[in-house]
Amino acid sequence: MTKYQFFTNCVNWPASDVHTDGGLIYLIDDAKDITRSTFLKHVDRDQMRALEMDLGYSVSRNGGLTMSRDYHVSYHRSKLHGQTVYLFKHSAIEYVFTSNNN
After folding, report:
1. How far apart, in whole angstroms, are the C-alpha atoms of residue 55 and residue 6?
2. Is the pTM above the cut of 0.90?
3. How far apart are CA 61 and CA 34, in angstroms?
4. What is the DSSP string of 9-22?
5. Where exactly are the structural domains of the chain?
6. Which of 31, 54, 66, 68 would staple 76 via disulfide (CB 3.0–4.6 Å)?
7. Which residues contact 26 (CB under 8 A, 6 or more apart)?
């Protein structure tokens, strides 16, 4: 199974694709909640670890707060222009993973 790759977050989203049919607004509105476990089955783990570190999370419980223990982070599946995508939401910012880097 091909792992979904990090595409971008909503802050850096191409402006021309925010309000288009099937674009960012649709993706956010259509998102379905999933578990972290389901999310991790589909995305590239190395990219996810790097994002967790960039966001300031610890890599182990002994070192501080891990993303897996942060109840403010949520995980979702949605569609971007008809293609399934996976995303997590952290501090009201969506981080989107796609299968083909749209």
Report:
1. 14
2. yes
3. 23
4. EGGG--GGGSSSTT
5. 5-98
6. 31
7. 79, 80
The Cα 86–Cα 61 span in angstroms is 25
CA separation, residue 21 to residues 33, 52, 78 (Å): 22, 31, 14
60 touches 67 (CB < 8 A): no
List phi, psi (to 5°) of 100. -140, 20
Tokens of 96: 């989107």
Tell me what pLDDT residue 54 has.
94
Distance CA 69, CA 62 (A): 12
SS3 14: coil
CA-angle at 74, arms to 70 and 78, nearest 5°: 160
Are 67 and 52 in contact by the 8 Å Cβ rule? The answer is yes
The encoded tokens of residue 102 equal 């749209």
> Over its length of 102 residues, how does the chain's per-residue pLDDT go in tens digits?
689 999 999 999 999 999 999 999 999 999 999 999 999 999 999 999 999 999 999 987 787 899 998 999 999 999 999 999 999 999 999 999 999 755
